[in-house]
Amino acid sequence: MDLVAPVVVEPLRRRRCSECHQGPLERMIVEFNAPVCLDCADLGHLVFLRRGDTALTRRAREASTLWAVVVRHNRRRTRYERQGLLVEEAALAEAERACLADGEARAARRARDAVRRAARDAEITEVLLAEILRLFPSCPVDRATEIAVHASAKGSGRVGRTAAGRSLDRGAVTAAVRASVRHVDTPYDSLLMHGIPRHQARTRVAPAIEAVLLTWRRDGGATSGRGRG
Length: 229
Ligand SMILES: [Zn+2]
Description:
Blueprint: E1 7-10, E2 28-31, E3 34-37, E4 46-50, H1 54-63, E5 68-74, E6 79-88, H2 89-135, H3 141-152, H4 158-164, H5 170-185, H6 188-193, H7 198-217
Parallel strand pairs: 1-5
Antiparallel strand pairs: 2-3, 4-6, 5-6
Helix pairs in contact: 1-2, 2-3, 2-5, 5-7
Bound molecules: zinc ion.
């Protein structure tokens, strides 16, 4: 692309157009060292688009037959800095519509992703639930469901996402069940509330946890030869 866009300057001092003498000028071009207003320079029909929105800027520029770069001199840094573009009004409107459509497309994609994730979470929960009940056949189904939902939920989903998603890690599943028993079936949480150090509290409730797990592992007689994980 060998287009050379006109450069429009935002003057730091009050300047008047050297042709029509209007002023002070907000923006101007410099021709033969003299300021020329945008009307005289045939750029008066363009609208200013401040820099910042990359996609909008690119689209507005691409849709404009004529566009200009707007700069201002930064005294401290002794250089001209880009402030934005002058683009055609119709091009800007078109660019805004395209960006809006983009935003809507992105929102729609996010919604589809969320649905897919929810379906996958439900699937993971199912797999986890089945595995919990396989390892702990006498675990009440509502408890097993609760544990599976919790484990596959986002954030706490180490077990759910890593293990159940691919191959179920029996140790991780047992850990999730054990954690649930610790909180629900023992005074562990209350011990913590009373200032008992975590490790001490864990030691204290460990036998109660193992007792619950032992009863949950029982199968009512059928196939229960599995040792502890
Ligand atoms: Zn003029």
